[in-house]
Design a protein that fits this description.
heterotrimer; A mainly alpha (230); B alpha/beta (240); C mainly alpha (229); A: 230 residues; mainly alpha; 8 helices; B: 240 residues; alpha/beta; Rossmann fold; 6-stranded mixed sheet; 4-stranded antiparallel sheet; 7 helices; 32% helix
């Protein structure tokens, strides 16, 4: 009988394994991606009609981010539901890994899903709404998408770890998330509008998102143990 | 000789409810303890505490003399748990499920080991099938495979026979016999006196959060144990 | 100092203080002059209540955060009860802020609400966070996890409040509101009324907290006895 012969995988490796597992499961069913993507697109269609097709740059940025935020909520909710379904979270808790591995694994997975939805939605938005400015500065746009989605995932992951245990589950997450994510939303919309149509200065907004991302990845990391242990 | 596992005055309260009221238990290497008790006695809580899922309110748990605390990550490598939950991801195949856990535990030669285990539990032909399609018996078999993936010297089983069909029961029996090599330690909870008696080297009864009976199998006959068992299982009120 | 003595002091302080405060606000402090139309502006007096309740609402949330941290560190039941009670009280004060604010704003700016007013908007977000906190508490079945979840959320939420404030402040800089009048500085006698009212509101908060906490502790004791029987 061999005992503990293999070297247990390191922190980053374990985080990667969790992300890989979630991706593999998602690849099979595609339920998460499909619902998130469709939701985002539908939201934008509704926005378009609400504004009678007249969406100045500012409004377009806003509509985009709101749609992405709502779609993210769907993904965040499902992420931990899967773990609780067959008590899988127990499996992760008795595995030889730190609790924060679970947090970072889920955080990264959620971030990638959100980013993927955004990447695929944007070209379609550009085509359907005839907004070529979306691609005027693709790298900068990708940058702000990552920064903004980072925040949504960082806070959303720990919140969904909490709400999955409540009776009202899917309803509670947005109630808790939206007030918290407001600063990032404002900042992301400002920066996105700037990318489409440079006006004024956005340094302080970038700074805000930066600080927010740092604080709200560290604090959940510190508090995650309390959320996930029995 | 230092016990493999020592539970020392373990107490666990959930809010106001006391699930465990001072459990003392010393488990030595190679033993197979079967823990009986009525529902609500605290069997699952005790097992979960030993597996580090639950933190004690008071008291300690020691592994080979060392107290478990927050830094006990490597400790989990030595434990295998078969609990009420299957701990299997529905959207992954049998193989993928085992691969994930094998990786997390750092099992050497994972693919080889996985195939070996799948053969052992009779699920090799379903290795690429999604777990969602499995029957209860198959799920239990796969769960056991998952639990012994990393060759843990300590195996904790929480009512593993519940809900199994005849084939699965036989496979579980065979597996347990295979795994009993004198060095591996087992703690199993059960409602089934027959099965329990069959596998055990030691029998214990947990009632209202306390161990009220603890004897080696050779010290008691089946009938005597049955008497003892029914005495405790019948009582519904907590005993002070 | 024993409980009873402290109680008497606080109650006495509160009772007398209330009347003194009312006197200060209505008699002692001179009526303000509205800078926009140079007329006597009685509604300005809402300001005393508005800012005091805003301050208390924020203080209560700070207490929630601190109690949450304490709870996570040593699972103290009292810390959890303090957090819950403070939240229940805090939301009342914050609601008061959200009512008095727009009333004051209407008389000064002619509008009830201004999205680029950082203090008002932050108070609104604070209100939502309070609601979220309380709904979270009531949605969790098992006691021991409820406190933990609430504590984690309380800490995260508290950290967010200053960031919200900043972001609305910067938002205003990029989107200046239609009216940029700032309420003028306070007269010295106004300052007395102002700070005293602030003090009395804080005392009020403490009194409420102690009483509610007392009730909760008794409830706890009752539940504990029920279990034993």
């Amino acid at each position: 009988m061999e005992v503990g012969k293999g070297k247990r995988a390191g922190f980053l490796r374990q985080v990667f394994y969790i992300v890989a597992k979630d991706f593999r499961a998602e690849l099979r069913t595609k339920e998460l991606f499909n619902s998130m993507f469709l939701f985002a697109m539908l939201a934008l269609v509704i926005f378009n009609f609400s504004f009678a097709g007249k969406m100045p740059v500012r409004v377009l940025s806003g509509a985009m981010w709101v749609s992405f935020l709502f779609a993210s909520v769907l993904g965040l909710n499902r992420s931990f539901v899967k773990e609780h379904e067959k008590g899988c979270i127990e499996g992760l808790l008795i595995a030889p890994c730190e609790r924060s591995v679970i947090y970072f694994g889920k955080f990264l997975g959620n971030l990638l899903f959100i980013f993927l939805v955004e990447l695929i939605a944007l070209p379609l938005i550009s085509i359907f709404f005839s907004r070529s400015e979306i691609f005027s500065k693709p790298f900068e746009l990708a940058g702000i998408l990552v920064l903004g989605s980072f925040a949504i995932s960082a806070i959303g992951t720990i919140l969904s770890a909490i709400t999955v245990n409540t009776r009202t589950r899917e309803l509670l997450l947005p109630i808790l998330l939206f007030p918290l994510i407001l600063p990032v939303l404002i900042a992301s919309v400002e920066v996105t509008a700037y990318i489409f149509q440079p006006k004024g200065s956005i340094i302080q907004w970038l700074r805000l998102i930066g600080i927010y991302d740092i604080i709200f990845i560290i604090v959940p990391y510190l508090l995650f143990d309390y959320v996930v242990e029995e | 000789m230092t016990p493999v596992i020592e539970v020392d005055r373990l107490e666990k309260s959930f809010g106001h409810k006391k699930a465990l009221r001072g459990v003392n238990l010393k488990v030595f290497e190679g033993e197979f303890i079967v823990l009986f008790g009525p529902n609500g006695a605290g069997k699952t809580t005790l097992l979960k505490s030993i597996s580090t899922l639950i933190r004690p309110t008071r008291g300690r748990i020691l592994f080979k003399g060392k107290e478990i605390d927050d830094g006990s990550i490597s400790l989990r490598e030595t434990i295998g748990l078969v609990s009420h939950n299957t701990l299997l991801y529905e959207d992954l195949t049998a193989f993928e499920n085992l691969l994930f856990y094998a990786r997390m535990y750092g099992v050497p030669n994972p693919k080889q080991k996985i195939e070996e285990l799948l053969h052992m539990v009779g699920l090799y032909h379903r290795k690429d099938d999604v777990v969602r399609t499995f029957s209860r018996g198959m799920l239990q078999r796969l769960t056991i495979a998952r639990a012994i993936l990393h060759d843990p010297p300590v195996l904790l089983l929480d009512e593993p026979y519940t809900g199994l069909d005849v084939q699965a029961m036989k496979i579980l029996d065979d597996l347990l016999y295979n795994l009993k090599d004198g060095l591996r330690t087992f703690i199993m909870t059960s409602h089934d006196i027959q099965k329990g008696f069959e596998h055990a080297t030691r029998l214990a009864i947990l009632h209202s959060g306390e161990i009220v009976f603890d004897k080696k199998k050779e010290e008691i006959s089946v009938l005597e144990f049955e008497e003892e068992f029914w005495k405790w299982v019948k009582e519904k009120e907590p005993v002070f | 100092m024993n409980k009873k003595a402290l109680d008497i002091i606080l109650y006495g302080l509160l009772l007398i203080g209330m009347f003194v405060s009312l006197y200060l606000i209505f008699q002692y402090a001179p009526p303000a002059i509205n800078p926009t139309n140079n007329q006597t502006w009685y509604e300005q007096k809402i300001f005393y209540v508005h800012v005091s309740s805003a301050w208390t609402g924020f203080l209560a949330f700070f207490v929630v955060a601190v109690a949450s941290i304490i709870f996570l560190r040593n699972e103290s039941r009292i810390a959890d009860l303090v957090a819950q009670t403070s939240a229940e009280i805090g939301i009342v004060f914050t609601t008061l802020t959200l009512i008095s604010g727009p009333l004051w704003a209407k008389s000064f700016w002619g509008r009830y609400w201004d999205w680029s007013e950082p203090r008002l908007v932050t108070a609104l977000i604070l209100w939502f966070l309070y609601i979220g906190y309380l709904i979270l508490r009531s949605s969790v079945g098992e006691d021991f996890r409820r406190a933990r979840f609430a504590a984690v959320f309380g800490i995260i939420a508290f950290l967010d409040v200053p960031i919200v404030f900043l972001s609305v402040r910067w938002y205003r800089a990029s989107h200046p509101p239609l009216l940029v009048f700032e309420p003028g500085g306070l007269d010295p006698s106004m300052k007395v009324a102002f700070f005293f009212t602030l003090f009395i509101f804080t005392v009020f908060y403490v009194v409420l907290l102690r009483n509610a906490l007392r009730i909760k502790l008794l409830q706890d004791e009752l539940n504990r006895l029920k279990e034993v029987i």
